[in-house]
Amino acid sequence: MDNNLSRIQNAVAHAPSISGIKIVGIDGPSGSGKSTLAGKLAFLLKAPVIQIDDFVSWNDFSGWWPRLEAQVLDPLLRRQPAVYQQRDWESDEFGVFLNGTVGAGKTTVAGCIGRILRQKAVAHAIIDLDSIRQAWPAPPSDRFNHELEMVNLASLVENYADAGVEAFVLAGVIEDATEIPRYRKALGGRPLKVCRITADESVLRTRLNARHQNDPDGLLWHLNRAIELENILVKQSLDDFMVDSSDKSADVVAREVLELAARQERSGFSHLPHLPA
To answer: Is 271's pLDDT higher than 60?
Structure first.
């Protein structure tokens, strides 16, 4: 990092200025250290850091450049102060569905996304779908109480929305693409992105062994279910994008989920292009 800082600092020092200013752009994938590098470089150069996150909205992933240009770049190039409004996280509405097999890390990643949203002052709710369908006995035709889950989810969303929540992070399983519109309806029509969290089979086995170390019967069931469900999800291929959690911390995966959701909308490769982003 120190060597990179020195090289960048030297390059900036020798770069020509435009209207007396120099702009340094830092790009890279999630978890690559962009914010850390920007902070250290800004300290050395005595320069402010402008986060593109402050211009991107969940309701408008692709329209951030005009505001950056109008509120930051144009004034600076005219040698005028740049004043801009940070993104209005509190008015954003969106939903993220973390899909994946048993042991993929969906619930843990959901909790990390929640911490990120709290830091951004986003009114949000984390809903573990497994927890809202726990009832016995389940109907013979619905062994996982899916219909009960959908009814409960709609009620929860309505209650959360009445309390001011506008962002929803769901952790669960979608095995059939026809269920996606039902989840969107349960979210009150909010935009919904489906991300499949994946992990290598060896990682899944390690996680499940740790989770069920005192429950051999439960371990066997979950190991079999993990393989069964992974095969179903691979075959269905219904997710908007995927993130591999095999060798990453849950915090890194959470940030990657949020970044890829925004990037996918900007690239126009949504599985559901007719929906508002």
So the answer is: no
Encode pLDDT of 155-204 as tens digits: 999 999 999 998 899 999 999 989 999 999 999 988 889 999 999 999 99
- Domains of the chain are 2-77 (no CATH), 89-267 (3.40.50.300)
Q: What is the DSSP string of the chain?
A: -HHHHHHHHHHHHHSPPBTTB--------TTS-HHHHHHHHHHHHT-----GGGT-BTTBSS-HHHHHIIIIIHHHHTT-----PPP-GGG--EEEEEE--TTS-HHHHHHHHHHHHHHTT--EEEEEGGGGS--SSPPTT-TT-HHHHHHHHHHHHHHHHHTT--EEEEEE---SGGGHHHHHHHTTT--EEEEEEE--HHHHHHHHHHHTTT-HHHHHHHHHHHHHHHHHHHHH---SEEEE-TTS-HHHHHHHHHHHHHHHHHHT--S-TTS--
pTM of the model: 0.66
The pLDDT tens digits of the residues spanning 98-130 come to: 999 999 999 999 999 999 888 877 889 999 999
